[in-house]
Amino acid sequence: MTEVKLALWQRAPVEPSREGFLEALDKAMARTRADVLITPELCWPGYGDVMLSRAEAVDQRGPFIACVRALAVRHCKAIVLGYAEADSGRIFNSAICIGADGAVLANYRKQTTANDYERECFTKGGPAPVFEIKGIPIALLICLDAEFPELVRRASLEGALLLIVPTALSPKWRVIPDAVIPTRACENGIFVAYCNYAGDDEAAPFCGRSLVVGPDGRTMANALTVECLLDVTIKSDDVIKARDQLDYLGHLGHLLRS
Hints:
InterPro entries: Aliph_Amidase/BUP, C-N_Hydrolase, C-N_Hydrolase_sf. The protein is of the alpha/beta class.
């Protein structure tokens, strides 16, 4: 059995400066003993008018990513950071996973755009490879991506046992954490960690309700509507137990061959 401790940083929208954000990230990492700290979607630099001008290159020599890598090493924790990524004149809605040793394990670019604002701002990305932390295979999706069963199924078929989903969800869409995310976990027999904001910014209100769902579709931990660190430990044996009882992926293979 392998296990990973997760901390979902359900936080208010971003500080007005890069330095302020990095300081807040540093403090959040110091408050938890988790192996992985997970942030909401576009945690830096947030939504609104300044977002495009504050997009950051993923280049490991860039100053912002270098600072985040240094925090990972200092606290000996992995980070999944939602951020606006600049690359060759294009902007992507991205999530980067930096390991506890400061190495970039994955950089995922959101494949869907939820509204006119996102369509105007962002270039769509594509699938990211499955990677591992402490022996647990992990995949990343962002917000709307996880609402498509095809994208979650692809990740699970590629071996992911944990899906990490930074999100920025308004109260209008509470059905997603209440019903859709548990369904995605259950129908694939995987863990899903879904991390949202709490509070309002200039772009929208956010509903909180970050949660971690087990491979049996049951919620393991669920935040309310205030800022918090939601700590959860996931164990690989729980996937085996859930799939022994109801193996959707096994049935799928039979159906596709028939």
